[in-house]
UniProtKB/TrEMBL annotation:
Protein name, entry field: Decaprenylphosphoryl-2-keto-beta-D-erythro-pentose reductase
Gene name of this polypeptide: dprE2
Coiled coil residues, start to end: none
Source organism, top-level taxon: Bacteria
Matches recorded under PROSITE patterns: ADH_SHORT, PROKAR_LIPOPROTEIN
An example Gene Ontology CC term for this record: membrane
Naturally occurring in which organism (per UniProt): Pseudomonas fluorescens
Length: 246
């Protein structure tokens, strides 16, 4: 029976993953800001076969709340087999360009809060000497594009941090997987004009994540075709790249 911690548990991708683990009879410790959505998620997972679901209200950007959350989690689960970090926001790049306070807060939402949280989790995993830390970053972190470089820079920081952390924890039997979704049909992207052919359903991405964790993938592009897309984008020479509207 898997013991699963999910931060940002009410997000569409996290819910899709949790449903698959629930079918395997997993035990959950779910963390999010919205009590009503947490209750709805818990009820859904119990129907699908979850052995037990414990709920914890926390804003991931409240760094001072991280230790108590982790302490409560360990009291319930004793050990964490899988920790999925799935919280974040999608900022308006133009607003961030004009408002330093908003820009910095969005970097905290998507970068600093993730790093703070997985630093504490890494220390727990190091004590356990087993388990998987799965962190949702983004394809946006692969290169700084003018349309979303604030968001992308935060995700790039997370990806680089996870790469170093993966090398550190590998030596004690712990796996770290960096998940890089592309466009996903979620409430966070519903108002964006996205190419339909590139937009994935959260259920498909969730299945890929669950399978990727089982196979101990290091970096997972979801869907997989984003690996090729981002390879091409990373390969564009800077003199050309800076002239593109990406």
């Amino acid at each position: 029976m898997k013991k699963v911690l999910i931060v940002g548990a009410t997000s569409a991708i996290a819910t899709a993953c949790a449903r698959l683990w629930a079918e395997q009879g997993a035990e959950f410790f779910l963390v999010a800001r919205n009590d009503e959505k947490l209750e709805q998620t818990a009820a859904d997972l119990k129907i699908r076969g979850a052995k037990a679901v414990t709920l914890h209200n926390m804003d991931a950007t409240d760094f001072a709340a991280h230790p108590a959350m982790l302490e409560d989690c360990l009291k319930v689960l004793s050990q964490i087999d899988i920790a999925l970090i799935a919280h974040g926001t999608l900022p308006d790049q133009k607003v961030c360009e004009q408002n330093v306070s908003i820009a910095l807060q969005e970097f905290v939402n998507n970068g600093t809060s993730v790093i703070a949280l997985i630093t504490r989790l890494a220390n727990q995993f190091e004590i356990q000497r087993c388990g998987t830390l799965a962190v949702i970053a983004s394809v946006a972190g692969d290169r700084g594009r003018p349309s979303n470089y604030l968001y992308g820079s935060a995700k790039a920081a997370v990806s680089t941090f996870c790469e170093g952390l993966r090398a550190r924890l590998f030596k004690v039997g712990v796996h770290v997987i960096t998940i890089k979704p592309g466009f996903v049909d979620t409430p966070m992207t519903k108002n964006l004009a996205l190419p339909a052919a590139l937009v994935a359903k959260p259920e498909a991405v969730g299945l890929q994540i669950v399978n990727g964790i089982e196979r101990k993938r290091s970096t997972l592009y979801a869907p997989g075709f984003w690996a090729l897309i981002m390879l091409i984008i990373r390969s564009i020479p800077q003199p050309i790249f800076k002239r593109l509207n990406l």
